[in-house]
Amino acid sequence: MTTPTDIAALSYEEARDQLVEVVRTLEAGGAPLEKSMELWERGEALAAHCQAYLDRARQRLEAAGMQSVPDAPPSAGTTE
């Protein structure tokens, strides 16, 4: 999946906050199917962007000698 340019420019925190809002909107329901699909696709891109940040941070920690960095739970960063 390629990351849209506007998402690629976001910090981790900005992307996480937008992802939280996308999830809230989808969970609230009521949006037309096409809009829901657009939100879902954006959410997927935001989640991938956040995961890339976390992966890079893990690599930096491991390179710095912190070999025992624990795995984050699968839902980390997607809930409040």
Compose a concise summary of this entry.
This protein is mainly alpha-helical and 80 residues long.
Would you mind describing this structure in some detail?
- This protein has helices spanning 5-8, 12-28, 33-63.
- The protein is mostly helical and 80 residues long.
- α2 (12-28) runs antiparallel to α3.
- It is elongated.
- It starts with a helix and ends in a 17-residue tail after the last helix.
SSE layout:
Elements lengths: L4 H4 L3 H17 L4 H31 L17
Binned, the helix content reads 55-70%
Radius of gyration: 15 Å
Count of β-strands: 0
Termini separation: 25 Å
The biggest sheet, with number of strands, parallel, antiparallel or mixed sense and barrel status, is: none
Number of helices: 3
Q: From N to C, what is the helix and strand string?
A: HHH
Beta-strand percentage range: under 5%
**Unreliable parts:** none
Please state the average pLDDT score: 87
Query: What is the global morphology?
Result: elongated
Properties at a glance:
mainly alpha; 80 residues
